[in-house]
């Protein structure tokens, strides 16, 4: 789908994905071969090589889960707020480190940002992200970039809960395709009406992508 979008001239953006896609080094490498940057969730079992202050990779790779607990023990997590919620600001504790992905060829190695989210009261991190954007980024800018992916989950839940996306019980592709298409068209109409009556405040991702990105 991404290949087709590029072939059809869809403007390139930063690819967001859940860990089912993000954990695949082949998927990430293909995005970079297309000239696309990504900010993807990855499995806690993903292994990386931590970079020192001069950008040199440590020889020993480690899982990002082990790295997260090491950072936690050293007090390396800091609170970051990424948007205003209905009742309160949405925030969590985050840590950011420069890494190389383990197991990649030398020609494919590049600076990646490992962003780790640890929510209050939880015994372990909630999410891990690998981000390929070059140069210096602030933690807040990267948090604002990855967190809007919750909208995808919200859309999926709305489609199931309000429009019966998961209610199709047939076994043939044409029927399934028709059902999905109708559900998506209905949802598109609802979103258009919502935007017409309640114009969104489109900061967040726009801020993260358009501001000068300096540490």
Automatic annotation (TrEMBL):
It holds the Pfam family DDE_5. Residues 1-87 form the Transposase IS701-like DDE domain. This is Transposase. It comes from Stigmatella aurantiaca (strain DW4/3-1).
């Amino acid at each position: 789908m991404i290949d087709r979008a590029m072939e059809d001239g869809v403007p390139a953006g930063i690819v967001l994905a859940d860990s089912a896609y993000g954990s695949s080094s082949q998927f990430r490498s293909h995005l970079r071969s297309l000239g696309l940057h990504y900010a993807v969730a990855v499995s806690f079992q993903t292994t990386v090589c931590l970079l020192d202050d001069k950008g040199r990779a440590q020889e020993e790779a480690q899982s990002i889960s082990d790295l997260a607990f090491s950072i936690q023990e050293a007090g390396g997590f800091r609170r970051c707020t990424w948007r205003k919620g209905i009742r309160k600001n949405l925030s969590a504790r985050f840590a950011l480190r420069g890494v190389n992905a383990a197991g990649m060829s030398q020609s494919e190695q590049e600076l990646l940002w490992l962003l780790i989210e640890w929510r209050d009261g939880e015994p372990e991190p909630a999410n891990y992200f690998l981000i390929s954007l070059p140069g210096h980024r602030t933690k807040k800018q990267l948090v604002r970039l990855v967190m809007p992916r919750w909208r995808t989950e919200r859309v999926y839940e709305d489609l199931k809960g309000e429009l019966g996306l998961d209610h199709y019980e047939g076994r043939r592709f044409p029927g399934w395709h028709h059902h999905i298409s109708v559900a998506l068209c209905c949802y598109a109409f609802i979103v258009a009406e919502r935007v017409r009556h309640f114009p969104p405040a489109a900061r967040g991702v726009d801020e993260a992508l358009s501001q000068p990105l300096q540490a």
